[in-house]
Design goal:
Low-confidence stretches: 262-288
Strand content: under 5%
Pfam families: LIX1 (PF14954)
Number of strands: 3
Order of helices and strands: HHEEEHHHHHHHHH
Family: Belongs to the LIX1 family.
Oligomer: single chain
Helix content: 40-55%
Protein name: Protein limb expression 1 homolog
Number of helices: 11
Organism: Alligator sinensis (Chinese alligator)
GO cellular component, one term: cytoplasm
Amino acid sequence: MDRTLESLQNIIAQVLPHRDPALVFKDLNVVVILQEFWESKQKQKAVFPSEGTVVYESLNSPGPPFVSYVTLPGGSCFGNFQSCSSRAEARRDAAKVALINSLFNELPCRRITKEFIMESVREAVSSTSGNLKDADDPSTSIGAYHYMLESNIGKTMLEFQELMIVFQLLHWNGSLKALRETKCSRQEVISYYSQYSLDEKMRSHMALDWIMKEQESTGIISQELQLSLRELEEARKAGQELRFYKEKKEILSLALTHLYSDQVTTYSNNGDQMYLTLNGSHSLAALK
């Protein structure tokens, strides 16, 4: 633990030389420090391709406890895990969690190397009762994971996580299963979606999928949304990274908005075919 703290303090000294490393986590201006950290990374050009700013979001609440989220460049999201009596306190707590994770991401052990890949594959095999031989077969889950890691050597875990979130959502959404049924190889799917970042177009497409599911099973969106809200709350209180849960909530909320608004238009020739237009959606047909 002492070595880890020393490593984090060394990173602070390198990225924020005007700050006292011993006082950073005690500083009430941790919101400012987090912003300075990512601005410094931007100047060093050691930032994510989908560059953005540090963004805060506070949930509407008539009183405590208050909840605040902070989204970092690249999309990683963190929230306050303590019970906060003010919005300012919630924002500071969320910023502290995000800063700690940002600093950890700079450690050498958080960068994808050959050694890191081998250890990660072994852990994946152990947790799934798979076989190490599967790592050389991209048609297997272990092989696909190995392929993705190999394709991202040199990146940090937060950078890799940005890509993984896309595939987690596609799995949750049912899109990966649908693609397998069209005989698309895992390499084709990975190569195709590796070119995309999670943006409004992709969210709109996933929302469209859930609207279609609602036509087959009324109430499924509301049920899934309630589950996602519970998962998001539990993950926040545990101090975990939140983007997967938060994106599910956003996609499902978007689906409900379009489902019950005038933006959805239904055309039917035979009573069971529906076409829905969502702004900026793109098709999976490119992979079929």
